[in-house]
Structures are given as C-alpha cells and as structure tokens.
Amino acid sequence: MNRILSIICTMLIAFGASAQQKSKTLVAYFSASGVTAKVAKQISEATKADLYEITPKEKYSSADLNWRDKQSRSSVEMADKSTRPEMAENISSVDQYETIYIGFPIWWNVAPHIVNTFIEANKLEGKTIIPFATSGGSTITNSVKELRKDYPNLTIKDGQLLNYPTKAEIDSFVK
Questions:
Q1: 35 CB burial (10 A radius; 0-12, 13-18, 19+)
Q2: pLDDT at 23 over 60
Q3: From CA 73, how far away is CA 112, in angstroms rounded?
Q4: Which end of the chain is more exposed for a tag (fewer CB within 10 A), N or C?
Q5: The dihedral of CA 42, 94, 154, 118: what is its sign?
C-alpha cells in the first residue's frame, strides 16, 4: 500500500512539474529606440516571464528610422508588406511557452515587419499571443487587426498600447 501511494505521489509531482513548465510565459519584443524595451522588462517582471529581444541582424540607425524620409530603411521596409528583415538570431525554442507577449513600436500603423519575421520563424500555433505596443500617435487596434489577418491560425488577443505605463497599468494589463 505504501509503495502504491509513493508511486502515485511521484506521478503527481512529475505531472505538476510538467504542467508548471508548460505554463511558462515569454515576453518577446522589438525596440528600435529603447521605449518598448522598458515596457517589455516591466511586463517580464510583473509576470515572472522569460525575456527575449527580437534583434535585427543589421541594427537600425537614426537615419534608418527617419519616417519622414521615404528612402530611409524603415520607410522602404514598411512600404513592402512582404519584407522580412533578418534577425540577428532566433530564440532556440518556444515550445515550453503557452503565453507569449509580443511587443513592438507601431510603425505606419502596424507592427514592424521584423515582428512578422519572429512570428514566422517560430511555431506559435496553440499559444496565446498578447501584443503590446508603444507609439507616438497610433492606437494598437490596426496592428492587431493586421496580425490576425496575416496569421489567422494563431490566437492573438486584443493587446494594449502602453506608453510609459505605471506599475499599476502593467499589473492591470497582465491580469
């Protein structure tokens, strides 16, 4: 009888550990100027999630980010919806995560195309994706709409625009 109880306890502990691993959360973010990075770190701390920076292989310079210059790198990339800027490296695996917060600055009313690169480089089906964004003037609504249109097989929540959020705003968002 004690042996059976011992086996059952061992199985329950193993199942609990397995379930715990599967419920891990990831905060993946792209930040061109550091604003989105600060928000991502706040979300990671609030959720005790792993943090991953989506880094372009070729960093963006100030000139690259000049949205007023139609020939700037960001303007050229965003003008072509099929552009997928290369990442410096990809996360080794997203298998252990159930929830993935994806953060980005809003460019031309949508997520920068490097976010698409990240999504397409990883198997995100069956995971809950929660977008968050920073912006000087746009809402997150169109960005989420476009992500849902581009990735209809993914579970993408409404997300939230978080410009310089307080701890209370972060806590409310992650609930």
A1: middle
A2: no
A3: 12
A4: N
A5: positive
**Terminal CA-to-CA distance of the chain, rounded, Å?**
43
Kind and range of the H or E run holding 52: strand 50-53
Tell me the pTM: 0.84
Overall residue count recorded for the chain in this entry: 175
Of 41, 65, 74, the C-alpha closest to 165 is 41
Which residue carries 């978080």 as its tokens? Answer: 162
Instruction: Pull the structure tokens for residue 114.
Output: 């490097």
The span from the CA of 107 to the CA of 146, in Å, is 12
**Cα(45)–Cα(58) distance, integer angstroms:** 28
